[in-house]
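Bench notes, bay 3.
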Amino acid sequence: SNDILKIRARERIYENIEYNRLNNRVTYRDLHHQTTKKKKIWPVRKVIAEFQDELFNLMPCWMASPEAVSAIFPMTQLFDLVIFDEASQCFAERGIPAMYRGRQVVIAGDDKQLKPFELYQVRWMEEETETPDLEVTSLLELTGRYLPTVHLQGHYRSQSLPLIEFSNKFFYEGRLKLLPDRDIISRQETPITFHKIEGEWSNNTNLIEAIAVVDFALYMLRTFPEKEIGIITFNAPQQIMIMDLIEEKASRDGMLIPESMFVKNIENVQGDEKDIIIFSIGYAPDANGKLSMQFGSLNVAGGENRLNVAVTRAREKIIVFSSILPEDLKLQGIKNEGPKLLKKYLEYARAVSDDSFEGYEQKLYQYASGWYLNRHVVGSGALKYPQLSFSLNEMPFTDITVREGKTYYAAVLTDDQVYQSALTVKEPHAYTPALLGQKNWQYLRVFSRNWWNNRERVEDELTKFVYQTTEN
């Protein structure tokens, strides 16, 4: 499909080229002149308006901000499709003109992430009205009032479940499904580690914690130079302090900081992702031992979305440095969710780090448990391996997982949960097998009709499959 699309895109460049009676090419001639001349240069908007067809044959896909769209494209339906990404961060009134340029529109965004930043900006000059459309902030909110909404269910950034499970529980109502990489989870490495630091809060910074974070980050850079690392702080002063310390220590040690590394605070980390994320929580008791319950932007309404953005940036591992423990946070009288969820996340990170987290309760069965084929398969005695465990619905996109202790070997797919949750026919027959292969899972598919028609044959296939996968 990719090759066909590329060929088709090239063909449209020359298939309708016009020539004059002297066999000189006319198409693109004036456009080339306007883009190469040195005097009387046209504005971009005029070039696009005059040579719309030729430009769009050469470049059918354009990427621009809503402000740039309004500035350079004429107010006509130029595009077959307009796609908005990160629409939760786009003011509604800035996105509407770009929508008008397309015959169809797709609005993509996450209302559990950051909203448009309104500081120092005046949006409305007229008097207050009671119009509901003027009370929403983002383009995502506005279009959600009129257009059908589809929730994406698959999560692909994180490579192990604990990296997304907290957000899935407290922000996404358990809708996200992540199949972890089999090789990674079988290593039995803890994806989140929690380090308690005896830091002190002074002038909105925590120097002791910052030093610990920088020392650890430089150690990781030396030990795992192939990994991309990001540091996230919970306020700007702590971010600046860590950046200064990194530059100072790296210069002193003769280290070169890779361009892929970033130091950001939770206000501007949306859209980023790294293999390893290091958190500097920063907040700590002051010199008098008093811990203030002020947590910057987390305290404001919607501050919990900033936390959600921050804790979902890691592909492989999260390291939390904190000078406070969850029980240190006394949140009586705090009405907004940000500080409350920070406390829950610290509890969660510590539990995962200590290997004491047992997972959040999930609703696995829509019908009586005896209705499901995976129960019959496991209870039939076909899988006669006392050293192995056969877990039901332990991993997303699977119905039975085969493991020994915490070492995972394979998956068995039935027409139970995988089929029930599928939105299209392609999902269980094409997308799920492709995902299993990508995540290094061997699998066997068992259908109910085969189980009832020839159970002995299916049991033999299961036995052979488990033997081969565990022995290999």
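Next record in the batch:
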Amino acid sequence: MIRYTPEHLWVRQETGGATATVGITRHAQETLGDIVLVELPALGRHAQGAAVGVVESTKTAADLHMPTNGEIVECNAVLVDQPDLLNTDPMGAGWVFKLDAIEPG
């Protein structure tokens, strides 16, 4: 199941588990334009709404906000060297981080 946040992130809950994958929506990617830098979040627990990372484009920069309370357990390190994955495949290979122990906000 995929849900979308007001901050233009998508959250895909893995079937039967508390793990979810998070990325930016196609709308966010189109608004930002050519993405040139991704600052990935730190692993660990974060509160819903906290700014946990940054996406920079040739036009602007945008914070990545935690979509729910939980623990970031993995980041897509490929984005450091290939931030353009957020332009070419924001809903797939351009995922940003994974959450575990998802809690209601």
